[in-house]
Amino acid sequence: MAKILIIGTGGVGTIAGLSLTQHGNEVTFVVRSNFEELKKTGYNIESCDHGDQTNWKPHRMVNSVQEAIANDKNYDYVLVAMKALPDVFSTADIIRPVVESSPNVAIVLFQNGLNIEEPIVKAFPNNVCVSGVSMIGSTNLGAGEIHQAEPDYVKIGYFDNGSDKAPQEKRAKEFVQAYGPKFAHYVDDVVYHRWRKLLYNATFNTICSITRMDSGRLWLNGVSDSLIRPAMGEIRAIAKADGHILTEEDEDYMIDSDGEVYYKPSMLVDVEKGNLMEMEVILKAPLDVAKKYNVPTPILSVVYELLKCLQFQLKEAKGMVELPEKLERKSALH
Hints:
The protein is an alpha/beta fold. It has two domains: 3-188, Rossmann fold (3-Layer(aba) Sandwich); 192-317, N-(1-d-carboxylethyl)-l-norvaline Dehydrogenase, domain 2 (Orthogonal Bundle), CATH 1.10.1040. Helix content is 46%, strand content 17%. It is built from 13 helices and twelve strands. It has helices spanning 11-22, 35-41, 65-68, 91-101, 118-123, 165-179, 190-211, 215-220, 223-241, 248-256, 266-273, 279-293, 298-317; strands at residues 3-7, 26-30, 43-47, 51-56, 60-62, 77-80, 106-109, 129-134, 137-142, 145-150, 154-158, 184-186. It has an eight-stranded mixed β-sheet, with helices on both faces. Strands 4-3-10-9 form a four-stranded mixed β-sheet, covered by helices on one side. Helix 7 (190-211) runs antiparallel to helix 9 (223-241) and helix 12 packs antiparallel against helix 13. The radius of gyration is 20 Å and the shape is globular. It catalyses: (R)-pantoate + NADP(+) = 2-dehydropantoate + NADPH + H(+). InterPro entries: 6-PGluconate_DH-like_C_sf (IPR008927), 6PGD_dom2 (IPR013328), ApbA (IPR003710), KPA_reductase (IPR013752), KPR-Related (IPR051402), KPR_N (IPR013332), NAD(P)-bd_dom_sf (IPR036291). Belongs to the ketopantoate reductase family. One of its GO terms (molecular function) is 2-dehydropantoate 2-reductase activity.
């Protein structure tokens, strides 16, 4: 039985906790929003994998990382399923108290995006970093209401920290067993699978957010072929320059991945809730790789600039932006 701390208990983190609990592990949730209510009533989960779960709770729920490590509490794994927002906060800083209290803890990242492991490995070079690429369709509807419409399937591997590879592989494979082989699968090249998921996240996730339309309505309007697929072609070109080959079949899979449902990708759900978007790790990171290799990205570059405007609006609504009283515009034409 593994002792696992989960930080980020939305649609992905809650289902991960449910699966880990059902496979005999001791799971602790760090719950920041609606803590008192959820501690009393638990989660109401509608899951295509696990059925309906009413008032479900993990073994333990705490309100902060500091409470999680109180009384010398140790963990085998700390699983991070919160949004990756490096322009707002540092994931490494959030989990640092856990790593300091549990020196042998393995860090598991169930987050979107590219190169999210690098700051973790830099901050904690002696800890195994396990990277998980989840293709689940699960949404936190608010106040502990979780709806999982698409099956949970996670590709899991280690992100090389430069030490002996055997112990890193061992910890990653042990986590697969803890999660359940039905829902998790070990892969040798987890970075490739992050690139592959970007075929969806850097295109559908971003463009749905800008247009405020779900993936089904984009498809009905022909956007899947006129805009999404060409944008996927740019991701494929960047990945190829970085040494990872994605195919037209991968494109077709992602185009059809939402099936017959009118699915709202996670970034669109965030925008509708007024939450910040993971645009830096989902789109800026691959664009940085494109710049490194001089790969042209006319579509994705425009999408990113539009997302910057949308993110600005979200930050302004949260009081994170202080506007100057007067604008001092300087134009090259005057």
